[in-house]
C-alpha cells in the first residue's frame, strides 16, 4: 500500500474510496501528505507526527498522535501493538474527520455520528478498558488548561472533579454520598453529547486542501 502513486485513477484508490468514503481526488491529496510526513517512507511513525509544527502547540497533542496508532480505530483486527502505520491505516483514522455526505439516509447518519463519537471516546479512554475514569479525565482537563499559567494543577483537578460529578448526576441520577462513580462509559458518552452537532464540527474540508499546510 505504501507504493501507491499519486494519480487519482490508481486502481488501489478505488478500494480505499469504498472503505473510507473519500473521493479519489481526496485520497490522492492525502497520499501526498502521508509521503511528506513520513519523509517518503511507506510507514508513518509517532516521531513523524511529532514534527508537525501546528500540532506541537495543541494541548491534547498526545491524544491526537496516539489516535493514529490506536488499533481500535482500524477496520481490521490487529493483535500486536502499533508502532507504525501504512497509508491505509492513515486514511482509516482520517476518515473520522470526513464530513458526512449529503445523500446519507437517517440510519447512515446515525452510524456516522456514532463512529465519530466512538473515535473521540477512544482518544480519552487511554487504558482501553471501555471507561473514561476520573484520572483520565483529570489528565485531559489539566492538559487543556495548561496554557493558562495562572491556574494551578489543584485548580485544574478541582474543575475536572466537579465536571465528573456533573456527568455522574446526568448519567446516573441520584447518587448516595458514599457511592463511587467508576467513570464515563461509551453509553454515558453518547447520552452526554446527545443533541450536540458533532457531524460537521468534527471535520476537515479536503477538496481545497493545501498539502503544504495540512
From TrEMBL:
<dbReference type="GO" id="GO:0005737">
    <property type="term" value="C:cytoplasm"/>
</dbReference>
<dbReference type="GO" id="GO:0004860">
    <property type="term" value="F:protein kinase inhibitor activity"/>
</dbReference>
<keyword id="KW-0449">Lipoprotein</keyword>
<dbReference type="InterPro" id="IPR052490">
    <property type="entry name" value="CHP3"/>
</dbReference>
<keyword id="KW-0966">Cell projection</keyword>
<keyword id="KW-0519">Myristate</keyword>
<keyword id="KW-0963">Cytoplasm</keyword>
<dbReference type="GO" id="GO:0030154">
    <property type="term" value="P:cell differentiation"/>
</dbReference>
<keyword id="KW-1003">Cell membrane</keyword>
<dbReference type="GO" id="GO:0005634">
    <property type="term" value="C:nucleus"/>
</dbReference>
<keyword id="KW-0221">Differentiation</keyword>
<keyword id="KW-0479">Metal-binding</keyword>
<dbReference type="InterPro" id="IPR018247">
    <property type="entry name" value="EF_Hand_1_Ca_BS"/>
</dbReference>
<protein>
    <recommendedName>
        <fullName>Calcineurin B homologous protein 3</fullName>
    </recommendedName>
</protein>
<keyword id="KW-0649">Protein kinase inhibitor</keyword>
<dbReference type="InterPro" id="IPR011992">
    <property type="entry name" value="EF-hand-dom_pair"/>
</dbReference>
<dbReference type="GO" id="GO:0030027">
    <property type="term" value="C:lamellipodium"/>
</dbReference>
<comment type="similarity">
    <text>Belongs to the calcineurin regulatory subunit family. CHP subfamily.</text>
</comment>
<dbReference type="GO" id="GO:0005509">
    <property type="term" value="F:calcium ion binding"/>
</dbReference>
<feature type="domain" description="EF-hand">
    <location>
        <begin position="112"/>
        <end position="147"/>
    </location>
</feature>
<dbReference type="InterPro" id="IPR002048">
    <property type="entry name" value="EF_hand_dom"/>
</dbReference>
<dbReference type="GO" id="GO:0032587">
    <property type="term" value="C:ruffle membrane"/>
</dbReference>
<dbReference type="Pfam" id="PF00036">
    <property type="entry name" value="EF-hand_1"/>
</dbReference>
<keyword id="KW-0539">Nucleus</keyword>
<keyword id="KW-0472">Membrane</keyword>
<keyword id="KW-0106">Calcium</keyword>
Amino acid at each position: 500500500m505504501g507504493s501507491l502513486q499519486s494519480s487519482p485513477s490508481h486502481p488501489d484508490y478505488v478500494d480505499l474510496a469504498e472503505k473510507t468514503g473519500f473521493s479519489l481526488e481526496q485520497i490522492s491529496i492525502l497520499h501526498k501528505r502521508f509521503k511528506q510526513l513520513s519523509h517518503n517512507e511507506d510507514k508513518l511513525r509517532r516521531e513523524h507526527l511529532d514534527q508537525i509544527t501546528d500540532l506541537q502547540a495543541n494541548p491534547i497533542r498526545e491524544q491526537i498522535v496516539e489516535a493514529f496508532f490506536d488499533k481500535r480505530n482500524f477496520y481490521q483486527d490487529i493483535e500486536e501493538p502499533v508502532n507504525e502505520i501504512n497509508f491505509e491505516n492513515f486514511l482509516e483514522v482520517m476518515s473520522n474527520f470526513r464530513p458526512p455526505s449529503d445523500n446519507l439516509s437517517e440510519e447512515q447518519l446515525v452510524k456516522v455520528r456514532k463512529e465519530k463519537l466512538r473515535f473521540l471516546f477512544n482518544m480519552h479512554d487511554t487504558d482501553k478498558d471501555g471507561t473514561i475514569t476520573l484520572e483520565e479525565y483529570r489528565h485531559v482537563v489539566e492538559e487543556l488548561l495548561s496554557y493558562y499559567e495562572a491556574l494551578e494543577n489543584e485548580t485544574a483537578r478541582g474543575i475536572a472533579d466537579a465536571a465528573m460529578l456533573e456527568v455522574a448526576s446526568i448519567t446516573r441520577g441520584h447518587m448516595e454520598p458514599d457511592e463511587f462513580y467508576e467513570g464515563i462509559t461509551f453509553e454515558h458518552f453518547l447520552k452526554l453529547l446527545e443533541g450536540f452537532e458533532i457531524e460537521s464540527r468534527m471535520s476537515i474540508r479536503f477538496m481545497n486542501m493545501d498539502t503544504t499546510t495540512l
